Amino acid sequence: MKVIQIGAHLSIFPKDSVMKQRLGIYFGEFFGTFLLVFFGISAVAVSVLFDAISSIVQISIVWGTGVTLAIYATRHLSCAHLNPAVSLGMVLAGRMHPRLLIPYWIFQLCGAIAAGACLLLVFHTSISSYETAHAISRGTLSSVKTAMLFGEYFPNPGFSFPWFGVSRGTAMIVEGLGTFVLVTMIFLLTEGCNVGRPGEVLAPIFIGATVSALIAVTAPLTQTGINPARDFGPRLVAYFAGWGKIAIPGPQNGFFWVYIAAPLIGGGCAAGFFRFILAPLMTAKNEEISCSCDNCGDASGNTPEDKKIHQFHEYREHE
After folding, report:
1. Closest to 190 measured CA to CA, from 102, 290, 90
2. Domain limits at 29?
């Protein structure tokens, strides 16, 4: 019986292996960023429009889950940066060739734009109904309440305490520091010389957990962007969908400095911190203490050296 290998020779991509690899990398960043952003901004949407998610902690869990799923889905294609600040950090840390940086940024932004467009497509009727019910005129200051479904704002429009305010400088610190923590954790969770890291299979879960923790802590202040593509892509959609100046440049004219510049600075600082401080410290040998399991015994108390001696004697007995 003749066996037909379905799809074995069917491909819309060029046979050039280098070109195919590049396309895989770019598609990975596009699709992964799309997944990450769509899950996250959809969680914000159902929270604002339907009160289906009642707390920032719940939103943060959805965001973290989206990050984890996006990494698992695309890391075999592009290493799943899915964030311009992460890509910049990888270049500065020597983990990625600089010529890939701009293409990475472009496809990350395109993925985020696609996510914003899909959000508008799915929820446009609900958004319009919400605006009508709450007497919100799109494009005016009051429409920040629905514009926040796409981009971030400081302070978080979901908190209306009369005493609550966040300056542009504070917002930049929050976004820069949050991105610094995220990129540093990504380095630590994926660096081979860090013996305390989880296995490769589990790393995306811990990266997602890092994002969840950051959102739970800082979202009341800035909605927690920590990803320039995640903010700017959907924000562009909102701009052209009628929110106009409320989307860009925003009520406080700070979206660029807070949600694009600050995360990039934070990611760059994280790369320098890891490359010149953490990595050398982790690779340095300490004769007084060992954090690895090289000298640890098994359940019977046998060390790897004991096992080697035992195996040697077994070998001699069989000679």
Report:
1. 90
2. 18-280
**CB of 245 closer than 8 Å to CB of 159:** no
How far, rounded to the nearest angstrom, does the alpha carbon of residue 41 sit from its chain's CA centroid?
13
Does any domain span residue 287? no
In a domain, 40, yes or no: yes
Q: What is the DSSP letter of 99?
A: G
- Contacts with 105 (C-beta within 8 Å, 6 or more apart), sequence order: 84, 87, 229
Q: Which of 45, 42, 40, 60 is nearest to 215 (CA)?
A: 60
In a domain, residue 313? The reply is: no
Domain count, the chain: 1
The pair phi, psi for residue 195, each rounded to 5°, is: -70, -15
| CATH number of residue 202's parent domain | 1.20.1080.10
d(CA 216, CA 218): 6
pLDDT tens, residue order, the chain (319 aa): 444 444 445 566 566 677 778 899 999 999 999 999 999 999 999 999 999 988 999 999 999 999 999 999 999 999 999 999 999 999 999 999 999 999 999 999 999 999 999 999 999 999 999 999 999 999 999 999 999 999 999 999 988 777 788 999 999 999 999 999 999 999 999 987 777 788 889 999 999 999 999 999 999 999 999 999 999 999 999 999 999 999 999 998 889 999 999 999 999 999 999 999 999 988 876 556 665 544 444 444 454 444 444 554 454 455 4
Q: In this structure, is residue 235 part of a structural domain? A: yes
